[in-house]
Amino acid sequence: MSRLRALTALTVGSALVLTGCAGSAGSSEGDSNADAGAGFPVTIEHAFGTTTIEAKPERVATVAWSNQEVPLALGVVPVGMAKATWGDDDGDGILPWVEDKLEELGGETPVLFDETDGIDFEAVADTQPDVILAAYSGLTQEDYDTLSKIAPVVAYPEAPWNTTLDQMIRLNSEGLGMADEGEALIEEIKTESQAAFDAHPELAEVAPVFAFTDPTDLSSITYYTEHDPRAGYLSEFGMPTAAQVETASAETDAFYTDISAEQVDAFSDVGLWITYGPADGSLQAQLQADPLLSQVPAIAEGRIAVLEDGTPLAASANPSPLSVGWGLNAYLDVLSAALR
After folding, report:
1. What secondary structure, in 3-state letters, does the chain show?
2. For 242-266, what is the mean pLDDT?
3. Cα–Cα distance between 322 and 143 in angstroms, integer?
4. What count of other Cβ atoms lies within 10 Å of the Cβ of residue 283?
5. How many C-beta atoms surround the C-beta of residue 1 within 10 A?
6. Model confidence over 89-129: pLDDT tens digits?
7. Is the N or C terminus of the chain more exposed, i.e. has fewer CB atoms within 10 Å?
């Protein structure tokens, strides 16, 4: 897996099953938007310009990571979505919290788009969508232009992979004609998130760095900036921002950046080192044995939280509309345990 692919943790695959896009008959979210023409047309501004959606979408497709969770959380089952291959616990291409929601809504499995080598435009077109949701994504101009020939596209607001959880929900729900329901969902997740962080008060005292650690090359440190939801979410709910993360976030709009291991002094204020890796403790030992990285106080003192690579819990650290309720408390338990 390339460093960028591991960083984004976003890969997807295809199947040929079409589904309807309405939620279950008892879904209050779906019922509140019974008038298909209300509130349309809708115009959404994003990094590539503006998108106008003339009528309420009946067939919703999503690409990239977790965009499908917005319609699902609002009671709408997409006709197609990206296949998950990172964080998938049973090999069916669907993350467990998405499986739970599909079962709750009584929806059939959407077509799964294989994005291993990029967006499968033909598979997306085959689902005949009325809108394509991609508010959290790494779309290029070419990707956007190609998708726009299929259906109106809701793209990210400013830069690739820089969309916050709130922005993803807000933009995607606007594209569905469900802006009010989207705002209510944002508030619900904020309340749930704050309660989880309040139950872990020890985290409010430490500045984290969320790093991608390549055990075969410790000569540089790759870490997420505040633009990435993983780092930004922790700051939003009370964890201090490390000085180096704050500096880097002001200098770039990239969701991650690198620094030479010889500059480890930049992380002297870091209280918690978060990374992906094996669950056997070998990565912690390797970091503590490294002559440069062991100079970081958090590493030297063993305050290293390793999320087992490729597990649903590791995937849930990138907050999404459905993963917060599924795994946030367990995730924060891992961070708190590292402090002890």
Report:
1. CCHHHHHHCCCCCCCCCCCCCCCCCCCHHHHCCCCCCCCCCEEEEECCEEEEECCCCCCEEECCCCCCHHHHHCCCCCCEEECCCCCCCCCCCCCHHHHHHHHHHCCCCCEEECCECECCHHHHHHCCCCEEECCCCCCCHHHHHHHHCCCCEECCCCCCCCCCHHHHHHHHHHHCCCHHHHHHHHHHHHHHHHHHHHCCHHHHHCCEEEEECCCCCCCEEEEECCCCHHHHHHHHCCCCCCHHHHHHHHHCCCCEEEEEHHHHHHHCCCCEEEEEECCCCHHHHHHHHCCCHHHCHHHHCCCEEEEECCCHHHHHCCCCCCHHHHHHHHHHHHHHHHHC
2. 96
3. 26
4. 18
5. 11
6. 999 999 999 999 999 999 899 999 999 999 999 999 999 99
7. C
Confidence bin at 9 (pLDDT 50/70/90):
very low
Q: Is 165 helix (H, G, I), strand (E, B) or coil?
A: helix
How many domains would you assign to the chain? 2
What is the residue whose two structure tokens read 């180096």?
244
pLDDT at res. 213: 87
Instruction: Indicate if the pLDDT at residue 11 is higher than 50.
Output: no
**Are residues 157 and 262 located together in one domain of the fold?**
no
Domain CATH number, residue 80:
3.40.50.1980
Name the band, by pLDDT with cuts 50, 70 and 90, for residue 85.
confident
Q: What's the full length of the chain, in residues?
A: 340
What pairs with residue 83 in β-bridges?
none
Nearest-10 crossing angle of helices 179-198, 323-339: 20
Q: Are residues 268 and 169 in the same domain?
A: no
Count of CB atoms situated within 10 Å of the CB of 276:
22
Average pLDDT, rounded, for the chain: 90
Model-level pTM? 0.88
pLDDT computed for residue 18 by the predictor: 27
Regarding whether 334 and 257 lie in a shared domain, the answer is: yes
